[in-house]
From TrEMBL:
Coiled coil feature spans: none
Record bears the keyword Oxidoreductase: no
Lineage of producing organism: Bacteria, Bacillati, Bacillota, Clostridia, Eubacteriales
Keywords: ATP-binding, Nucleotide-binding
GO MF, one annotated term: ATP hydrolysis activity
Residue ranges constituting the ATPase AAA-type core domain according to the UniProt record: 29-97
Protein's name according to its UniProt entry: ABC transporter, ATP-binding protein
Gene3D superfamilies xrefs: P-loop containing nucleotide triphosphate hydrolases
Amino acid sequence: MKIKDAVEFFNSFYKDFDKNKAADLLKFMNLDENSKITALSKGMSEKLYLTLTLSRKAKLYILDEPLGGVDPTTREKILDAILDNYSEDSSMIITTHLVNDIERLFDDVAFISNGEIVLSGNAEEFRNEKGISIDELYREVFKDA
């Protein structure tokens, strides 16, 4: 399967899929639609998954470790794509251990340990009240874990 086949598959499967947006994101991500998916690197695969996901007009996006295992340049590209394609009438849940890299995206945060929420709230309020970044707060909460 090639990237263009995946785009066609998503287009036929999801009524809210926007092929034009997918084409724009593929270009932004420097992905060739004729590339075989099995030949993509980890970073290129992550960019493809994000492209397919963000090309939908969903009310809720769930991104599980979108920066996991990718180089810093690809991380920046992924973060820019998320920021540039975020819609005010949708919500996004992002799981990550790379808090520092993704902190600029947070409105609210929830720290989970052993299936339990150990701390949650508005990111800006945490920054103001505690005088530290969310990354520093994360490290503080999980320092003994």
